[in-house]
Amino acid sequence: MSRPETIRQRSAKHGFTSIWPSAENGFSLCRRSAEHGFTPAWRSAENGFTLIEMLVALAVFSLAALALLRLEGATLSSTHELDRRTMAQIVARNLAAEVLTDPVAPTLGETKGEEVNGGSTWHWTRAARRIGDGVAIRIDIAVADEAGQAMADLTLVRRAQ
């Protein structure tokens, strides 16, 4: 009496082969070779990722994205502050250039004024006083923004006359 034909034998007779790992397909379930990826028998690369693995990966990615967004916000804030300070320095240097190129020395004491530069109004204060034996004048220039916050300071010395 012969053994009945198995499903695999019938499938092979009609040209179908099994895609599952088996000894008939070249490797055993217990021991897998490097050629087949060292993965457990119940899990192969063809199965893809599980839902839990995808959720963990998405959580890690979202944490990294949130950190980058916070960094971007801090960068924009500090860039705006540096832009304002740079513009205040430009106003202070323009005032210094006027004082140094004027043939007449500035009046001693404190002088206040406003300048419009870079689309903003800047308030400045210039304090001039004699130093040493009176041959030179020290000039302190302070520039503040529209809110009155000090943004730039500059000190220079020029000949009294």
From TrEMBL:
PTM field: Cleaved by prepilin peptidase.
InterPro entries in the record: N_methyl_site, Pilin-like, T2SS_GspI_C, T2SS_protein-GspI
Protein's UniProt keywords contain Cell membrane: yes
Gene responsible for this protein: gspI
Gene3D superfamilies in UniProt: GSPII I/J protein-like
Organismal lineage: Bacteria, Pseudomonadati, Pseudomonadota, Alphaproteobacteria, Sphingomonadales
Primary subcellular site in the record, as a coarse category: membrane
Keywords (A to Z) from UniProt: Cell inner membrane, Cell membrane, Membrane, Methylation, Transmembrane, Transmembrane helix
Protein's UniProt name: Type II secretion system protein I
All residue ranges annotated as the Type II secretion system protein GspI C-terminal domain in the record: 82-156
Family according to the record: Belongs to the GSP I family.
TM regions (residue ranges): 48-69
Functional note: Component of the type II secretion system required for the energy-dependent secretion of extracellular factors such as proteases and toxins from the periplasm.
Protein localization: Cell inner membrane
Assembly and oligomerization: Type II secretion is composed of four main components: the outer membrane complex, the inner membrane complex, the cytoplasmic secretion ATPase and the periplasm-spanning pseudopilus.
Matches recorded under SUPFAM superfamilies: Pili subunits (SSF54523)
Pfam families named among the record's database cross-references: N_methyl (PF07963), T2SSI (PF02501)
Membrane topology: Single-pass membrane protein
